[in-house]
Amino acid sequence: MAISAEGGASAAPVEALPPEQDGATEAESVSDVGRAHATGRKTQSARLARWREILYMLVLRDLKARSKQAYLGYLWILIQPLLLTGVFSVLVQQVLGRADLSEIPYPVFLMAGVIPWQFFANSLNESTESLVKNVDLVRQVYFPREILAIYPVFARLVDVAIGCLALAVFVFVWHVPVSGWAVLVPLILVEEMLFAMACGLLLSAANVAWRDVSRGLPLVLFLMLYAVPVLYSPDRMPRAIRPLFDLNPIARLVDAFRTSVVGSQPPDLVALAVLGVLGVIALLVAQRLFAVFDGVLADVI
Fold first, then answer.
1. Which residues pair with 10 in a beta bridge?
2. pLDDT value, residue 227
3. At what angle do helices 185-209 and 157-173 cross, to 10 degrees?
4. For site-directed labelling of 51, which of 24, 180, 206, 294 has its Cα 20 to 30 A away?
5. For residue 160, what are the contacts with CB-CB under 8 A and spacing of at least 6?
6. Are 189 and 157 in contact (CB under 8 A)?
7. pTM
8. Apex CA 12: angle with CA 7 and CA 15, to 5°?
9. Where in the chain are the domains?
10. Are 160 and 119 in contact (CB under 8 A)?
11. 197: which residues sit within 8 A by CB, 6+ positions away?
């Protein structure tokens, strides 16, 4: 301690860091934070790439399994909508004598509704059973279980592509003009995928605890076929049950798909925008609910 001239004790001088040392320390801190963020971004990118690869592998495995030990192979993807279109066309036009259900040839009208409906129904059926069928992956490999519930939706896009090729042949044979609104078909399919994935997440989790879900779902979807405007136009619906159509997003999307391809009027663009928002919300809510169940999934299954 130094003694001042007044006899008091002066405080010891505080050694300050040189300005350049303070700057170097701050720069090192910023650099460390930057490296941490960069590492985090790389880790997240690698994780997303791995999950995308798992999704691709599951879709590819599904496509291979569908043609395995089947003499007709991928032709079954084409046969199913053709059979449904043929059977319902004969039933409605010849047996019931209803040739007034559409302004265009009925087989074209029917095929344009069968394609989006079968996409949703088949996706939901397979998504519901996806966790139970892949029990080994659930128990042994760690990855987001949501991938198992949504990959059937992506796999069924192949069905839509093949169905659209068949629809193009129908349009050519019956000389039906294609609407300019057909450019909206990809958007409509994306919105349908949102609802299919949301329902698939919820039903796949429920099916783990209650296997009755997967047993009863095909019957429910079969009955829904008559509540969705596949065999008829929404204009033919009685006024009393019209709210069933208005509140059913899949019914609206099926009608929008057909209207966009072979309709004489544009689809309801406002309804499509609203359905897009509702689809995103439904998927987010379903993912949250699925995440709650995910923690005990391996034990329950």
1. 2
2. 86
3. 140
4. 206
5. 115, 116, 119, 189
6. yes
7. 0.82
8. 155
9. 80-300
10. yes
11. 127, 149, 150, 153, 283, 286
pLDDT of residue 255: 94
- Compute the CA torsion angle 249, 250, 252, 255 (nearest 10 deg): 170
The type of residue at 268 is: D
Q: What is the per-residue pLDDT for 10?
A: 46
Could you tell me the CA-to-CA distances from 246 to 35, 228, 275 in Å, in that order?
52, 11, 11
Nearest-angstrom CA–CA distance, 120 and 123 = 5
pLDDT at residue number 33: 38
Q: CA-CA distance, 6 to 285, in Å (whole number)?
A: 77
Give the Å distances, CA to CA, from 104 to 99, 112, 170, 253, 282. 10, 11, 11, 19, 35
pLDDT averaged over 10-residue windows placed end to end, the chain, 301 residues = 44 47 45 45 74 89 79 80 90 78 88 96 95 82 84 95 94 94 96 97 91 93 90 85 87 95 92 96 95 71 63
